[in-house]
Write a structure and sequence with these properties.
Layout (H helix, E strand, L loop, with lengths): L2 H7 L5 H9 L3 E3 L2 E2 L13 E3 L2 E2 L8 E6 L28 E2 L8 E7 L2 H8 L7 E7 L5 H9 L2 E2 L2 E2 L4 E8 L2 E8 L6 H8 L4 E9 L2 E2 L8 E3 L2 H8 L2
Parallel strand pairs: 7-13
Antiparallel strand pairs: 1-2, 1-3, 3-4, 5-7, 5-15, 6-7, 8-12, 8-13, 9-10, 11-12, 13-14
Length: 234
């Protein structure tokens, strides 16, 4: 098994973060500093991260959180900001957030130690749909909706086609549901900026057909067996 996949499956971090740890020289296999692309014999090799022995997880855990504004989706933050981990009950250990919602965005967040599921939900090639509730600073007209649905250029690259539905027209803005299949940095905010508007409120409400229901801001619960099975079979 590749070393980054092993670390992800052990609940250490995501594969991407594992690659960073390897680049930083923090990972060793049988006492030798690991390189990206190294394989691990999960039954015989001893893997350490910063000197701590990593054991393969025998059981995966899956949680859903209603992430509040004012925290970041990392296990630790180098700026000492509050993270989503601060909202977890003390008995929940060795899970990490799947993907990222930015500091000012709230809503549905999965936390798990299942590296394969994390890869499935976050890798762009899988095009897992994610739906957001958006409130804009100014009204959004049909011309802008057409541009957004067809794709707009952000950071020099055109976005893929998306689905947008107007929920409510307000005096000073518009409420919409937008479903995207990419996960670029601050993508929804940048898409509206590309048509001359700003996002006042942003909340992820669905991943695929998994909905955020029954949780107050900052609350977390285990996913049901049916929900887990749904995500694993996306």
């Amino acid at each position: 098994m590749r070393i980054n996949k092993f670390l992800a499956e052990c609940g250490v971090c995501s594969r991407r973060k594992a690659d960073q740890l390897i680049d930083d020289g923090a990972v060793k296999i049988n006492g030798e500093t690991a390189s990206i692309g190294n394989d691990v014999n999960v039954d015989n090799d001893i893997v350490t991260v910063n000197g701590k022995i990593i054991n393969k997880v025998k059981k995966y855990d899956y949680y859903i959180m209603n992430k509040p504004k004012g925290c970041v989706c990392t296990v630790k933050d180098d700026k000492n900001r509050k993270t989503v981990m601060d909202y977890l009950p003390a008995d929940i250990k060795r899970v990490f957030p799947v993907g990222r919602l930015d500091y000012d965005t709230e809503g549905l967040l999965i936390l798990t130690n299942d590296g394969d599921l994390t890869f499935k939900l976050t890798h762009p090639k899988n095009e897992v749909p994610k739906t957001y509730l958006v409130k804009t600073e100014k009204p959004v007209d049909e011309q802008d909706l057409s541009k957004l649905r067809s794709g707009v250029v952000i950071d020099g690259v055109k976005t893929k086609k998306c689905n947008i539905r107007v929920v409510e027209k307000l005096k000073n803005g518009t409420k919409l549901h937008i479903t995207i299949t990419e996960g670029r940095n601050r993508q929804v905010r940048k898409m509206f900026e590309a048509v001359g508007n700003n996002v006042d409120f942003l909340k992820r409400i669905k991943i695929g057909d998994l909905q955020l229901t029954g949780l107050n801001r900052g609350e977390v619960r285990r996913l049901s067996a049916e929900e887990i099975n749904y995500l694993l079979n996306l």
